[in-house]
Amino acid sequence: MNWSAPYGLADSYREFRHPLAALVLAVVTAGALDAFAFLRYGAFVANQSGNAIFLGMGPAGGHPTWPVSAASIVAFATAAGLVSLLRRRTGPTAAPLVDIAVTEIAMVVWTVLNLALAYGRDGTAVRVLLAAAGAAAMGSLTTVASRTAGIATPITYQSDTTTKTGERAARWLLGPTAGRARARRGTLLGLLALVSYSVGGAVGTLAQHRPRWVPLWGTLALAVLILLLRRHPGPASRPG
């Protein structure tokens, strides 16, 4: 099977030498930092679907820290939009480096703020700032690779992953024979992303016992993505 189809600019098979390793690393990190942020600030930094519902629950009296969620949504969208724009203005060789560099800078800022502001223990205003810093990092990270082998595999938006995985599983098991191979590949990629995000959530929860360096661990983990980049980007191919 030829995998050299014209993938999107943010396809992990185009931009990484070990695309599945890059995908797993990014999704596990997003899950871990999402769990860490939720338990510390009462808001997510990656899962903006959860934050959106908090915006309704808060004014209705069900989630008093809803301003933290609002800050996360705004920062995430802003970072994702700006980094996507930067990618379009960058050559294909350096495009993924833009995402990683901005993410790393935002992660360092987030780490320093957490250390300086005691992980949000001093009130809602502090948590708003911390959530915004973390969401800026995750908004940058989500643009690193939105596809794998031409199939949508979001890093932070796992609601879409769940939907697409169900659709692809149905096509794999019940659909026309001609499309089953691609549907199987999409189903397995979706399951890989969901499991990775869940594992990250467990890591972020367990890390609450030693929170001091959690964002720093995330910064170091994402630095590994640079080592996985293709030295000479080009159409990816692999045998079927």
UniProtKB/TrEMBL annotation:
* Residue intervals passing through the bilayer: 20-46, 66-85, 97-119, 125-145, 188-207, 213-229
What Pfam families does the entry give? DUF1275
Per UniProt, the keywords (alphabetical) are: Membrane, Transmembrane, Transmembrane helix
Q: Does the keyword Transmembrane helix apply?
A: yes
Alphabetical list of InterPro entries matching this protein: DUF1275
Q: Which PANTHER family match?
A: SLR0142 PROTEIN (PTHR37314), UPF0700 TRANSMEMBRANE PROTEIN YOAK (PTHR37314:SF4)
Q: What is this protein called?
A: Uncharacterized membrane protein YoaK (UPF0700 family)
Q: Which organism is it from?
A: Micromonospora echinospora (Micromonospora purpurea)
